[in-house]
Design goal:
The complex is a heterotrimer.
Chain A (H helix, E strand, L loop, with lengths): L6 H7 L1 H14 L10 H18 L14 H17 L3 H9 L2 H12 L3 H44 L4 E4 L2 E7 L4 H18 L3 E8 L5 H17 L2 E5 L3 H10 L7 E3 L2 H11 L8 H6 L1
Helix pairs in contact in A: 2-3, 2-6, 3-4, 4-7, 5-7, 6-7, 8-9
Chain B lengths: L1 E10 L2 H17 L4 H20 L4 E9 L4 E9 L7 H5 L12 H8 L2 E7 L3 E9 L1
Antiparallel strand pairs in B: 1-2, 2-3, 3-5, 4-5
Chain C lengths: L5 E4 L2 E5 L6 H18 L3 E5 L8 H16 L3 E5 L3 H10 L7 E3 L2 H11 L15
Parallel strand pairs in C: 2-3, 3-4, 4-5
Antiparallel strand pairs in C: 1-2
Helix pairs in contact in C: 1-2
The chains are: A alpha/beta, B alpha+beta, C alpha/beta.
């Protein structure tokens, strides 16, 4: 292994030219994405990175980018990757940021070391390894960030599609449909509580007729929502509990003693009306028609 | 994982407990936590800060903003050199109280955080670390 | 030390908590409230926490204490305006506040109190007969 690499020195001496050439490489590249990033932004990002890169290269661990001397560089790349992921760059496009630095760096290495073939090839190798590691790092970060963006978009979609219906004065209905996973349930429940505040409802009916299965986590979320609503001053009725679900709930050992439950939405509605001091009565005509 | 910001704040009085709540709220907002997450963080911090004041004889909290590339996080480490806790398991159990309400503090803080770690030695002090991620 | 103001409205006492209370202020409120209930023979206490962004176990316990102690002094307590984020957090924290009645806002809280107490019509808070 090289005892003292020439790379830090080269970064120091040729900083300005390296920056110029590197930016040019990026601008000329097919992955330029001028639609997503302006030239001045590109220049700024490159300058910031090069500066940090130069400083980090002075430590003893030139090739181990997990060591503290590389902390700041990783910070910059993490932020850069995150922002590019958000703007829609692919992982490759982001990694090109690093890889396009190879050519300018090799050129300078060749200039300095052309008399010494062995050293040149060693330094070239070190430069390649280093930039490959940094490039791969940005790809990893980018990946994680894309996943985070997608997750957040899914969340926002969930929030937009939360179906809370005002059934009557002071009575809300939340008809849940489909499989409930923990994340979705959490979002929907938070939304229900918010709706309770906004519509000043005193009773919320959570109807789970359309839910095929309920596991412990979801059952717990339901119970927590009921408890939270009570703390806020509203009561919840859980309706539409099918026999299979009732069985699962009992088997799971979930304690529904504190919660009012009704088999059907209609029964829940009738109860809700009663609790809010109202009653549905039948007129003689209705009775005759029935 | 990178620490992008850190600060250490004294936790010695009941006014400090309020200051810690406000500081944690500010940091949580900066890190992009949603409202419910913010509330959980601030509440957990309040519980732990109170323990530090009332049972630890006063101490400090170290606040660290974390970034592990996929998520941002807020790490709070409460430290005191007070009496320490002899039986941690017991203290974590809800309702356990030595009078001024150690009852829900530890167990509650643990439930409100994503990561929870406690070290305590009687006569030496206590350190509690919690993290919540976005 | 400043203290949280307590308003008297007929037979009811109204407390609006608008600051992030430090522990001593909370204890002072508890004491002040008990003294006021006793001295005014109040029948109802309305605690408005709609401005509170957090309720931790200390405040939670204070609320529970107030409700329990008021009942001993023959007054009903209603806590109103708890925010969703606060409610969710309290449930996670494990604080049930089971002895405490709650309502969404001051208006509903007053209705709740008036419904549960036989207050004479002239003294109802909003000045006209309740149905």
């Amino acid at each position: 292994m090289i005892t003292k690499s020439k790379i830090p020195n080269i970064l120091e001496v040729y900083e300005e030219e390296l920056l110029k050439d590197w930016v040019q490489e990026q601008l000329a590249s097919s992955t330029r994405r001028a639609d997503l990033i302006s030239e001045s932004e590109l220049r700024q990002q490159s300058a910031e990175f090069l500066e940090a890169f130069r400083q980090a290269s002075h430590g003893d661990n030139l090739l181990d980018i997990t060591t503290p001397q590389w902390d700041h560089v990783r910070e910059i790349l993490t932020e850069l990757s995150r922002s590019r992921a958000q703007h829609g760059f692919t992982a490759s496009e982001t990694a090109t940021f690093i890889f396009s630095l190879k050519q300018p760096l090799f050129a300078r290495l060749h200039q300095e070391l052309e008399k010494n073939a062995d050293t040149l090839s060693e330094e070239n190798w070190a430069a390649t390894v280093l930039l490959d590691k940094l490039g791969l790092f940005t790809t990893e970060v980018h990946q994680q960030n894309r996943e985070a963006v997608i997750a957040r978009q899914q969340q926002e979609l969930l929030e937009l599609s939360t179906p809370v219906v005002k059934l009557w004065e002071g009575i809300l209905v939340l008809p849940l449909i489909g499989t409930l996973d923990s994340a979705r349930t959490q979002v929907i429940m938070e939304s229900l509580l918010q709706q309770i505040v906004e519509s000043e409802a005193t009773i919320a009916i959570i109807d789970i007729t359309g839910v095929p299965t309920v596991d412990t986590l979801v059952a717990q979320h339901l119970l927590k929502t009921v408890a939270a609503a009570r703390l806020m001053g509203a009561d919840c009725i859980i309706s539409g509990i099918r026999p299979q679900i009732a069985q699962t709930i009992v088997q799971l050992g979930v304690d529904l003693n504190e919660v009012t439950t009704k088999a059907s939405l209609a029964a829940a509605f009738r109860l809700a009306l009663q609790q809010s001091g109202q009653n549905v009565t039948e007129t003689p005509q209705d009775a005759a028609r029935r | 994982m990178v620490i992008t910001k850190n600060d250490t704040v004294p936790v010695r009085s009941s006014e400090d407990i309020v200051r810690v709540r406000q500081a944690v709220r500010t940091w949580a907002i900066d890190l992009g936590f949603g409202l419910v997450d913010q509330t959980k963080l601030v509440t957990a911090a309040s519980e732990l800060a109170r323990n530090t004041v009332n049972h630890g004889g006063g101490g400090t909290v170290r606040m660290e903003a974390l970034n592990n590339a996929a998520h941002r996080g807020l790490q709070l480490t409460f430290e005191d050199h007070g009496a320490g806790i002899a039986d941690i398991e017991l203290a974590l159990r809800d309702g356990y109280t030595t009078g001024s309400g150690l009852g829900l503090g530890l167990g509650g803080a643990r439930r409100l955080a994503n990561e929870f770690e406690i070290e305590s030695r009687p006569g030496e002090g206590t350190r509690v670390r919690i993290v919540r991620w976005t | 030390m400043e203290r949280i103001p307590i308003l008297k409205m007929g037979d009811l006492l109204l407390v609006t908590i608008q600051v992030d209370m430090h522990d001593r202020l909370a204890i002072a409120l508890q004491d002040d409230l008990m003294n006021r209930i006793a001295s005014t023979s109040a029948r109802g206490v309305l605690i408005d926490i709609s401005a509170l962004e957090i309720v931790d176990s200390f405040i939670g316990r204070m609320i529970g204490n107030i409700a329990a102690m008021s009942r001993v002094l023959d007054a009903e307590t209603v806590v109103v305006g708890m925010r969703p984020a606060v409610a969710i957090t309290l449930v996670e924290l494990g604080l049930s506040l089971s002895g405490v009645r709650t309502a969404l806002n001051v208006e509903k809280g007053m209705n709740l109190l008036q419904a549960s107490l036989p207050l004479p019509a002239e003294e109802s808070a909003d000045g006209h007969n309740e149905e």
